[in-house]
Amino acid sequence: MRGPGAGTNWRLTERHTMHAPSPRRTRTRRRSTRWTPGGGFTLIELLVVLAIMATLIAVTLAVGSSVVRGGKGARTRDAIRVLEQVLGDYSTGIDGMPEPVLRLPADVAEYERDERNLVDIRHIPIADARWEARGGVMLNSGGLFVAQARQAGYGSGIEGLDAKLIAQYSPEPNPATVSEAEAHPSLATVMDGWNRPIRYVHPVWDGQIVSGMRAAGDAGSYVEVSNNDEGYLYDGTNRRQKWIGDADKVLIRRNRILESEFEMVAEEDRDSDGGVCVNAERPYFYSAGADGDPATIEDNIYTQDPRFAEVEQP
Fold it and tell me: CB of 125 within 8 A of CB of 225?
C-alpha cells in the first residue's frame, strides 16, 4: 500500500521530467575567409596591398630624385650661361681673350683702398688645376675669373643670378691658419646646383699640365709654370708660357684620370676633366656634376663641349 505522498512525488518528478526543456543544439559557424562589408582583410590580401604600396613608394622616390637632379642640372646650366655671357661681354670689351692670370696684391685690403699705388703684385693662374703651394688645393678657377671680370668692370651680369648660386668661397681647408698673403683668396664664386664651384678652363691652361709622361695609376707631377725654360705637357706637346711674374714661383698640376685608373687613383687626386678648348681663343665653363668628380666626364655639365685628347702613357 502506497503512502499518501508517494504518488504525488512521482507525478511531480514525472511532470518535471516530461516538461524539462531539451538541450539546445549549438552550431559552430565557420568564419568566412572572404571580405564582406564590415569585415577585414585576410593576411594574403594585406601582404598584396603592402607590396603594391612599397612599389608605388619606390617609384615615387625614384621619380622625385630624378626631378631633383634635373632641377639642379637646369640651375647649373643657367648659371654657366650667365658666366658665358659675362665672358662674351668681357672679351668684346677688351677685343681679345682675358689674361690667364689674376693679378692680386699681397695685401688684398690695400687693393681695396687704392690699386694704383700697389707694387707687390702676385700672379695666380686662373686654371682648373691643383696648386702645389697650398698643399694641393684646387684653384678656384671660376672665382678667379669672376674677380678678374669685376676688376675689368665686366662682372655686373653675375649680380642677376639667384643669390643661392653665389657664395664667398676659398678652397683653403684651414684659412684661419694661413696668412692672407699666402692663402688662396676667398672670392665671390658662382656655384652649381650641388653647391660646388663652377670651373673655368682657359686655353693657356687646358689639356693636361703634368711634368713628363704620366704613368697609368700615377696622378702626375707638378710643373713650375713660372719657369719659362721648363716646358709642360699640353695636349701631348710641350708649350712654354710667359704669363707668370718673375717673382712668383708657381707649380700646378692638371691631370686627366681615365676610368680604367679609378681604382688606382683616389678621387681627391683627380684634378680635372682634362678637356681642351675647341676654340683656342675661347675658354669654357663646366660643373663636375652630381658626383663632384670632374674625371667622370659623362656626369659633367657643359654648355660648350670641349675636346678630349687621347692620353698617352708609357
Answer: yes
CB 209 within 8 Å of CB 201: no
Q: How far is CA 289 from CA 48, 199, 256, 313, in A?
A: 39, 11, 16, 27
Burial class (CB in 10 A: 0-12, 13-18, 19+), 83: buried
Q: Pull the grid cell for residue 238.
A: 710641350
75 and 193 Cβ atoms separated by less than 8 Å: yes
Residue 220 and residue 208: Cα distance in Å, rounded?
10
d(CA 193, CA 144): 19
**3-class SS of residue 47:** helix
What angle, 0 to 180 degrees and rounded to 10, lies between the N-to-C axes of helices 43-94 and 141-151?
Answer: 40
pLDDT 10s digits, 30-73:
555 554 555 567 888 888 888 888 888 877 776 555 555 568 99
* CA-wise closest residue to 121 among 133, 107, 132: 107
Whole-angstrom distance between the N-terminal and C-terminal Cα of the chain?
138
Q: What is the pLDDT of residues 194-236, one digit of tens each?
A: 999 999 999 889 998 888 778 889 999 998 877 655 545 444 4
Element (H, E) at 57: helix 43-94
Q: In this structure, are strands 232-234 and 101-105 parallel, antiparallel, or unpaired?
A: unpaired
- Residues 241, 245, 247, 249, CA torsion sign: negative
Nearest residue to 178 via CA among 259, 95, 108: 108
Q: Other CB atoms closer than 10 Å to residue 183's CB: what's the count?
A: 19
